[in-house]
Design a protein that fits this description.
By secondary structure, the protein is mainly alpha-helical. It has 2 domains: about 5-140, no CATH class; about 145-175, no CATH class. The chain has helices spanning about 5-15, 20-40, 55-65, 75-90, 120-135, 160-165, 170-175; strands at about 95, 105, 145, 145-150. The strands form 2 sheets. A two-stranded antiparallel ribbon has the order 1-2. A two-stranded antiparallel ribbon has the order 3-4. Helix 3 (about 55-65) runs antiparallel to helix 4 (about 75-90). The longest helix has 20 residues, at about 20-40.
Length: about 180
């Protein structure tokens, strides 16, 4: 998959966990590829979608940061982004290794996508929509302090609701009512 789709999927996975980890999830979403690049600079021979794309490693990283130690969820966000990267690459024909001891490749939905084709953009869009829907309707998502029935979706403001609750005045509502982001 292309990096822009990895970033979209990583940010979406991060938002499901906690919107505050989105920046680290975005960094982690591209990390399996740039870690390969760094390893090659230092003379370590790695093949693409090899050791940095092992699904089990990223699952263990998520478990470690979620259960053992983490500073302000930086590690968890990074690990979720890395996991989202290998999940996205598992949709492709090449797939990813599930464990370091197996030669078999892990594929989701038959691994029918080719990098750069329209299908990967569709998959990224579907994952993003599902994750945003989950965040919005999840009972554990961040709640708006003025309306306990709606979830928190960062960067998307309900200007009408803010005006009705008295948070903003009529001039600010009029200025921002057609801005969706």
């Amino acid at each position: 998959m292309k990096w822009q789709n990895h970033i979209i999927i990583g940010a979406s996975f991060g938002a499901v966990v906690n919107p505050l980890v989105i920046p680290m999830a975005v960094l982690g979403a591209t990390s399996p590829d740039w870690i390969e690049y760094i390893l090659k600079i230092f003379g370590v021979k790695v093949k693409h979608r090899g050791v940095t794309h092992v699904v089990l490693y990223w699952i263990l990283a998520i478990a470690f940061f979620a259960l053992v130690i983490d500073y302000r969820h930086f590690g968890l966000g990074f690990a979720i982004g890395g996991f989202s990267h290998v999940v996205a690459d598992s949709f492709t024909i090449a797939g990813v290794p599930f464990s370091p001891t197996s030669d078999a490749r892990f594929h989701l939905f038959g691994g029918k996508l080719r990098t750069g084709n329209a299908g990967e953009y569709v998959v990224a869009g579907i994952i993003a929509i599902l994750c945003v829907t989950w965040v919005y309707y999840s009972p554990t998502s961040f709640k708006n302090s003025h309306d306990e029935t709606s979830g928190f979706i960062p960067f998307f403001y309900d200007w009408k609701k803010q005006y009705d609750s008295g948070l903003i005045d009529g001039a600010e509502w009029k200025e921002n009512r057609l801005k969706f982001i």
